[in-house]
Every structure is written in C-alpha cells, then in structure tokens.
Design goal:
Layout: H1 12-26, H2 32-35, H3 37-44, H4 48-72, H5 78-99, H6 103-117, H7 122-131, H8 134-163, H9 168-175, H10 178-189, H11 205-210, H12 213-246, H13 251-283, H14 285-300, H15 311-324, H16 329-339, H17 345-374, H18 377-383, H19 390-400, H20 402-411
Helix pairs in contact: 1-8, 1-10, 4-6, 4-17, 5-6, 5-7, 5-9, 5-10, 8-9, 8-13, 8-16, 12-13, 12-16, 12-17, 12-19, 12-20, 13-14, 13-15, 13-16, 14-15, 14-16, 14-19, 14-20, 17-19
C-alpha cells in the first residue's frame, strides 16, 4: 500500500521497539495485587478462593475485551484499537490504585483493568503479521511477548521493594504510574503510520476459521498453555512467600524475597519467548511448543511439593518453570497467523482468545479452590501460612497435557508445513 501524504513510513525495527516499550510500561502495574495477596487477605478478610477470584475478574475482563477487540481489528484499524486501549488501561490502573479498599471494589476495578487491556494485545499481533515476513515473525512476536514478561518482572520487583518501605495503598499508587508512559509512547511514534486497511469477507468465515482443523488444534494447544500460565503466574508469588516463611523469615522479609524471586522468574520469560520465537523460525513451530510444554508440565508436577525443601531446589525448578511456562506463547501466535488468511486473522485470534483466556480466567480461582480444599482452615490459622501447594500446581500440569497432544496431531497433518517455511 502506498502511504498517503498524511501517512508516514515506520521501519519494522522502530515499530517493534515502540510496541514493546508500550507493552512493558503498561504491564508495570499488573503484579501489584498478586504480590500483596498475603497482606490483603488479612486486611480484607478474603479466603484463597476469594483472593483468586479477584485475579479471575481481571482475566474475565481481559477475555471479553480481547475477543471483542481482536474481531474488531478485521473491520477497523488495529492501530487505533491499540492506541485507545492503551489510554483506557492507564486510566483504569489509576482507578484501581486509588479506590480499591475492599474485596468488592478490588474485584470490580481489577475486572475493569482487564476490560481495558485486551486491545493492546491481539490487534498488535495482527500488526506484527503485517510488518514481518513468516521467516522473522516468530522472533518478532517473541520480543513483543517478552516485553510483557519484562513488565511483569518490573512490577514484581517494584512492588516488593515499595511494600517494604510504604503501606500497600501507596504501593498501589506508585506502581500504577508506569501505564501513563505506556499510553503516551505509541501516540508519538506510531500515529500516522501507514498500514494495510482491513478487508473483511464474512462469507468465507466458516471455511477460514471455524472449519480450519489445523487452526483449531493450534487454538486447543494454546488454551492448555494459557491454563497453566495464568494459574502459575497468579499464585507463584504467594507460593514463594510461603516458602520463605517456612524458612523462618518474617512477613516483610518473605514478601520482599518472594517478590524479587518472582521477578527473576518473569525475567526468564523475557529470554525464553525471544529464544523460542527464534528457534521456531529455525526448527518449526510444533517442535518447539512440544519441547517447552514438556519442561513446564514437569515443573507443574514438582514445583508445589518443594515447600519446606532447601531454597536452592525451589530456585532451580522455579527458574526452569519461569523459562518454559511462557516460552511457547509467541510460537502459538506465529503458527496461527500462518494457518489463517490475513483477512480473518483478527477473528481467529478472537476465537483463540475466547477459548484460551476463558480457560485461563478460571485457572486462578480453581487453583485457590484446590488450596482451600487441601489446606484446612485449622492449619492456616495455626501455622499462619499454607503448607500444601503440590496438588494445586499439579492440577495445572494435568490440564496442560492437552497442549502437546494437540501439537502432535497437528504435526501429522499436511497443513503443518504452512508454518515456518515448511518446518512444521
């Protein structure tokens, strides 16, 4: 497409830097509640199920918006969806920081945050598909997903550092300032950027998406991946706090140490998404997905049982877990973009989000429910922390086994050679 006089040409590198920077700053507030769960449970009188439901409210809001915005990007400019969603999320993060003072207010406002964030994800994946050829698309999506992991890591580290010095209310406010910068970056760098206009063709929807078996298998695998990822990321900071409490640290020390190590685990995701994107460009999408999910599932079946063990073992398994649990995320996105026509990619991403993030939205609450079942109230009151985490983490791994199964099915189909230049 030839840019009009009002349009500017942005190089792929500048485009990638802009969207990655935006994602990083927007995500700097996303872990402030997660780190503070042990504190807020006492302040707001929440059970583990209730604490998990606040996280699920966010995921549910995110699910609604990500489905709507993904489908919308097939009909209107995905760039504009990205811009306005960034601004809305910055505003919602400030509302959460200033007005979340009880379980109900946190439940509603965290849900609003999720409702505003969806437009900063799937429309950008479509923009990446437009700006990068298939041979480089995996690593480009890997950098974009990795930027989110870096933002999560920064959120964890900042929350842990701040809560050791200020109260939780101040911590909420200070960690919610990053999204303001994230909302400004794309306006200055990407506004006026030339882009491909949407060309919706509704009469081909069933053939291109709903009857596309390879794409549906990719969506199935992604859903299993999202279940494991969202459950693990939602509860790992609290688990690590419990590990440090079991070592004899006091609550403030355990909170800070748990937040720091959680941030390191997120940093592993920054490396892994970039690496997995590159590996999938070189060796194939399904091969990398199967390998990474094999590692993460093994960690799910072992991580929760390590409470009370030497912290070195927790760190070793935790680092492997942090590396593998998100590594395949950009590979799933790259693969789906190669199995579906560009004109229907937004709709395909919407369907993937509806199923995948719908499953992921339930995972934190299901995890909390298993914790409540396997940690009787008398134990919690007596010990002051939860001693049994193995069953909850193992539950994540059990469901995640669907992912490798779906990828093995996809590898057996001739359409799998449409991905990564024929490398499956």
């Amino acid at each position: 497409m030839i840019p009009s006089p009002r349009q500017k040409t942005v190089s792929p590198l500048i485009f990638l830097l802009a969207i990655c920077s935006t994602r990083l700053f927007l995500h700097l507030c996303l872990q402030n509640y997660t780190v503070l769960i042990p504190v807020l449970q006492k302040e707001w009188q929440m059970s583990n199920t209730a604490a998990g439901s606040v996280l699920s409210a966010y995921h549910t809001g995110f699910l609604i918006s990500i489905v709507a915005m993904a489908a919308l990007s097939d009909w209107v400019s995905p760039k504009k969806v990205f811009f306005y969603s960034s601004i809305a999320f910055a505003a919602s993060s400030l509302l959460f920081a200033f007005f979340s003072r009880s379980y109900l207010s946190a439940f509603l406002l965290r849900g609003l945050m999720g409702l505003c964030l969806g437009g900063t994800y799937t429309p950008v994946l479509k923009l990446i598909s437009e700006n990068f050829f298939s041979t480089h698309r995996g690593r480009a999506m890997g950098f974009f997903i990795g930027a989110g992991s870096l933002g999560h890591a920064g959120s964890l580290a900042a929350t842990g550092w701040l809560v050791a010095r200020y109260d939780w209310q101040t911590t909420f406010v200070l960690t919610s300032l990053g999204p303001i910068l994230g909302a400004v970056i794309p306006i200055f760098i990407l506004w006026g950027m030339a882009e491909r206009k949407p060309e919706p063709q509704g009469n081909m929807l069933k053939k291109e998406v709903l009857a596309n078996r390879p794409a549906l298998l990719m969506i199935t695998g992604y859903s299993a991946h999202t279940w494991e990822l969202e459950g693990q990321r939602s509860w790992t900071p609290a688990f690590l706090v419990a590990c440090y409490l079991a070592m004899g640290l006091n609550q403030d020390q355990a909170l800070q140490s748990g937040a720091v190590f959680s941030s390191v685990m997120y940093m592993m995701g920054v490396v892994s998404t970039s690496a997995a994107g590159y590996w999938s460009d070189r060796w194939g999408r399904t091969a990398v997905i199967i390998a990474m999910m094999a590692v993460s599932i093994s960690c799910s079946f072992s991580f929760g049982w390590l409470i009370g063990s030497p912290i070195l073992w927790v760190m070793i398994v935790g680092l492997a877990y942090g590396f593998a649990v998100i590594a395949e995320s950009p590979v799933y996105s790259s693969g789906l973009s190669e199995l579906v026509s560009f004109n229907f990619l937004g709709t395909a991403l919407a369907l993937r989000s509806l199923i995948g993030f719908g499953v992921g939205a339930v995972a934190p609450t299901a995890f909390g429910l298993v914790l409540d079942i396997t940690n009787p109230g008398e134990i919690q009151r007596t010990l002051g922390y939860l001693p049994n985490w193995g069953w909850a983490f193992s539950m994540l791994g059990l469901v995640a086994l669907i992912g490798p199964w779906a990828m093995l099915r996809l590898r057996s189909m001739p359409e799998s050679r449409m991905m990564a230049g024929g490398k499956k």
